[in-house]
Amino acid sequence: MTPRDAQAPSTALLTDRYELTMIDAALRDGTASRRCVFELFGRRLPGARRFGVVAGTGRLLQQLRDFRFGDDELRYLSDHRVVSRETLDFLAGYRFSGTIRGYREGELYFPGSPILIVEGTFAEAVVLETIALSILNHDSAVANAAARMSIAAGDRPLAEMGSRRAAEQSAVAAARAAYIAGFDATSNLEAGRAWGIPTMGTAAHAWTLLHDTEEQAFRSQIDALGTETTLLIDTYDIREGVATAIRVAGTALGGVRIDSGDLPAVAAAVRAQLDDLGATATKITVTSDLDEFAIAALAASPVDSYGVGTSVVTGSGAPTAGMVYKLVARQDAGGGWVAVAKTSTDKGSKGGRKAAFRTLDEGTATSELIVVSDGFEELSPASRHPDARPLLVTLVEQGETDAGYEGAAGVAAARAHHARVREELPVRALALSRSDPALPTVYTDAG
Amino acid sequence: MTPRDAQAPSTALLTDRYELTMIDAALRDGTASRRCVFELFGRRLPGARRFGVVAGTGRLLQQLRDFRFGDDELRYLSDHRVVSRETLDFLAGYRFSGTIRGYREGELYFPGSPILIVEGTFAEAVVLETIALSILNHDSAVANAAARMSIAAGDRPLAEMGSRRAAEQSAVAAARAAYIAGFDATSNLEAGRAWGIPTMGTAAHAWTLLHDTEEQAFRSQIDALGTETTLLIDTYDIREGVATAIRVAGTALGGVRIDSGDLPAVAAAVRAQLDDLGATATKITVTSDLDEFAIAALAASPVDSYGVGTSVVTGSGAPTAGMVYKLVARQDAGGGWVAVAKTSTDKGSKGGRKAAFRTLDEGTATSELIVVSDGFEELSPASRHPDARPLLVTLVEQGETDAGYEGAAGVAAARAHHARVREELPVRALALSRSDPALPTVYTDAG
Lengths: 447, 447
Description:
Helix content of chain A is 36%, strand content 20%.
């Protein structure tokens, strides 16, 4: 693994305590070194949606670099007697040296899709459960919602501006996930810096309220930001706001923003007024409590772009993707390979190593094909499914991360990949109503 | 303000772009230095609940210390031409030098409660909008849900274990907020280290699946963690799991955990089986998709403690508290004091400086009393409401933070404060059903 940034804080305690107590017991009974396969997947799509969007992978890879138990972390674990002295020694030397394959960031997923497959010893793989799930569950929940909004918006630009409705670091991750799933920009400056996402925004109601008149506020904003700026015209009376905006800026005004009211009616009235005043090129942005349904309902309205806040950062009703991280195969005492799965209840999973393919018919996706193996053999059903697109790529090989999936370049690649694979979806997958998944998940045995 | 930790990364770009463009324009027209009062409040309680719980204040104070524009931040803003050269110079010297009063962390709130009141120049106060809202909206959403779960659980211990269903840093903040609102422990180790919260957890299903038999898994866990540990008994057959657990551990086994199935039925069966086996002191913990309603439904079941995941970290249906940050008063061009508010629509706010009190009748809260002032005068209605408890404390005075609200000590104080003020609530406030707020918000004029 590439050396971690010396500045970066450790991510190793972003972990549930039971992972370390299991390592403690496994080091004691010798099972810590058993080779294991853990799988990260969703049992269902959140919110009865038709497809999911994988997001967070690139963030996980970066945080994996910083997943080291340093002096501070070890001191806490020691002071609070979380684990034994032997386990502290093991953790002090911890670095993930296994292999992670997974879906590319931006890829679509369906129930049972093996989004991440982590292979390594029990001890090195079990400890990644929480951080992997935290990142993938949050980011994919946002991406799932964002993709639907992007479909609803069609060609109209879509900006994420929900930072204030998400915890401060989640806000940055949410901006990133929304961008991957089709948004065009964000209000969040850190998302711009860290991930290369275009940022936007001009003024809040506070700007108008700060000034003694709306006209003074508009005039100052034009002076500072130019005629191309967007003026927020709904602080007092919207009709007067539009009239003042054009009187101050002229008909070359870039745009007006509406942040309240019954948007279809208000947008139509504002458009008519702008056109009457000769400001036919002045654009209208709307930003009031939009979600995918509200965006769809505005499709016929004279709106030029959308800003979405709360609903995208909170997953539009499904704030977590609900993915789980399960042991699906391991070595037994004799070194043999065993597929394993919880069997007691409804929360079962499918044991065995997996490979995954999207079958296509003339370019349109027809199924999520998951090939299950009980053993170590190579999983290469592509030969039997020549039209199937392989979904798994190697993200980490023997501890070495593929840097191509990280950073701003990784985000740009994920966004492009998402746009490409979304084109494969059948038309029915694009509807917003609640439904079964758009593709069936089909399991087949290897060999 | 106390010097920031040299290690801590800057929080200054956790900010919406429009805050900086407003500063840019305000520096140009001279309004940047107008004295302003911004107020952070909720227009309603999320999820039609009966009260809200303030959380995040201590985190905000710590992040405010790191809210500085350093070389990296300024370079990004310069490279992307977010603001002018003059504004970069202003930001380079930025440090909040104003005053923040607010509700204590752990305090209850109602619609319109002035949870934070930020006074300073326009430029120094407007730029805190996003970070203040991000932290308070997230943490209070979790605390709102957690308080209801804590009420439903009564005297039974309650652990937060939802890290996997929240973004990795939000998970730490969520554990903290849940603890303040009445939870007793968390699975999240970083929450333990950073905020002094007790941590818990023993083993996952992967532990049982790792071993060739359930018995071997239980035996190893007992060997490593002692008989006092909690065994997870639902990987295969629950009845066999319980029998195996007691056979291996003896009747002194600390506890068993059930993570699936129809909990009231399963808990009753497990309790009866444990008692039959003589393990009458072995405790039962349940952890499967609980929320406040499921906890309440288990009140008559033989359950000893609860672990709550998804629902608490996602606010149990209300993942953001929906608070806003609004300019409510400012100086005009002549230096006079003006109460301001958006007036166009349903999203209006109440202008003017505020003070806040909880009126009490024989120790039971009767109203949220908000005293509104149009001017600079002292707001001291306590003399007229001798039974009213003042709700605002000074968090930051001329840039100096009151350190008593920060760190693990701040968390402990907030948790104690919450427990105390929750005792003031009328009984009707403790019901879980959707309702109007339990207390009316009453506005009165100062003077």
